[in-house]
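Intended use. Records like the one below are meant for learning the mapping from a protein sequence to its folded structure. Do not use them to infer anything beyond what is encoded.
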Amino acid sequence: MNIDELPDDCLLLIFNLFNNFETLLNCSEVCKRWENLVLKRLHSVKYLTNSSERDAYPANYTMFFKEDDPLEKYRISILLPRLRILDIAGRFKLKPWAVFPAKGLQFNSWDEYLEDFTFYIPGIEMIAASHCYNFFANDVQGPKLTQLFISHCDVSQFASIAKYFPNLKRLHIEDLNTCYPDEDKCYTGPVLEKLEILEVSICVEWGDVNRYYGLSLADHCPALKSAYHVIPVDEPYVNSEIENHDLEDLVLLLGCDWSTLRRILSKYPNLKHLAIRGGTLITDENIPELLKILPCIILIDVRDSGSVTEKSTEYIHWYCEHHNRSISLYYKDDETEIKKKWPNLSTQRVHIGRGFDFMKYCFPLKHHENLPYLLDPDE
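Structure written out for the chain above:
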């Protein structure tokens, strides 16, 4: 059979297997029929990237291009009318991308020329960047943002610019190779009234960390529902006088003892999902007290702890029978069991998550480096 004899549906199925932008554009030049089918294929695209990590993007909705592809000559708003996120890997000149019809911009390579660059990008609501650049940390662009992911920023640095982002719903700040850990201080910025997801990762390349202040930032987020903290100290700063009754999901990667962990957990009495990672000294003897502190808990993930055993499983089974509760405990380093009970949890690293879903894309991840850059709420 000649390929021209294939019905439109079959040809479209073939084009749907292509995820290279330039290849599809070449196909569109064959004939008018192919051009119409290619346009139909492109109209399903939501994410455009030149990243080489193809498995980290939603397969059916992502189109890939090469750095030397002349995208600026194409009418992107017509070819990709449903484009949600533009993701650029490597060095690039940002200004041509400002006219793209995207809601999200993702670039994690540092470019010094951006430091003093100022312009407005209409429509942008989500940004993932290596640093906090002036072009979005301002009175015009900042209030438009609902998501912000910054790869090199500690709590004090964010506090100095937080006034520009009153409408954030998700914030991720990290400083994974800081050489000046003692410069970080308690959060002194404004209250983030709308923030629902907070992720703070502070690690040290060399030197000592005396305090971790991510919890002080969380104290200024009254609507916070989900949090992920990487705590590189034995005694983080904890204000026990402030509680958050809305927080439901909490991941703690830390190495402190039970007394410190108890102080942290006591701040969140309505917690439902808890993951403790990093070798924290929690044992079977602590589980009964944990259940008293967290009367709403339904999922406990302590797979990194070598001191929680089958004994705790038996105790929780007894506890649930006597209190009419359902609580799942996972202590073995095995993803099989937890995925059986919670099939929607994803352990795969993704750069873009489809849906504003912390539990699906953030909670199951053991390594904070794998947290998604952006969560697209337009699923």
